[in-house]
Amino acid sequence: MLRLTVFLLLVRHRVVTGIAGPVGGGGRGAVPPAAPTRRSMPTIKARQPRAGAGDRGAAAVEFALLLPVLLLLVFGIIDFGRALNAQITLTQAAREGARLAAEGQPWSAVVVPRTRAAATTLSVVTVTGNTCPAGAGPGTNAVVRASYRFTFITPIGAIAALVGGGRLGQPLNLSAKGEMPCET
Predict the structure, then answer these.
(1) What is the pTM of this model?
(2) Exposed, middle or buried: residue 90 (CB in 10 Å: 0-12, 13-18, 19+)?
């Protein structure tokens, strides 16, 4: 019985794979198998398993695991660029205010409004500092400090909490200092 089962499986294997030749084991009197031609090719095709059939959901799982890290990276790039732009704008505004204070312009009438106006893209800028006193020479400096509370627009804090980030996503206090020698 076992020999018959093996024989039938061998016959089926040869028909499915297209191997021509004797089935009985190819002893001394066996004829070597002929090279397959178009006419001798079997019409029965073996059902090929799909490539990656066992990995069907692996890509979805990997994507789900990497998505928070990817979003953290993308949102971090966006908000870092915005924060850098805000810092550069704030530094330029503090320089502008220091230049006006060094010329002896009135503090509340000219220096503060023009410093805030120089920070065009920033909403609420706090300006502190000092102007040059009358008759001050080049050894005295006018100092203007500008500060701004930067808030993130992306949900970077929520995504950072998934990955294990601490304070990421909380508003930042940006500040800049402008200092110029007095010209009065």
Answers:
(1) 0.64
(2) buried
Amino acid of residue 171: P
Question: Any residues with CB less than 8 A from the CB of 15 and at least 6 apart, and which?
Answer: 42, 44
Name the burial class of residue 170, with classes exposed (0-12), middle (13-18) and buried (19+) by CB atoms within 10 angstroms of its CB. Answer: exposed
User: Rounded to the nearest 5°, which phi and psi values hold at 134?
Assistant: -60, 135
CA 161 – CA 7 distance, rounded (Å): 64
pLDDT one digit per residue (tens) for the chain, 184 residues = 556 555 555 555 554 455 555 555 555 555 556 665 666 555 676 666 666 656 778 888 999 999 988 988 898 899 999 999 999 999 999 999 999 999 889 999 999 999 999 999 998 999 999 988 877 777 889 999 999 999 988 888 777 777 676 677 788 899 999 999 988 6
Q: In sequence order, which residues have a C-beta less than 8 Å from that of residue 122 and are 6 or more positions away?
A: 86, 89, 90, 93, 148
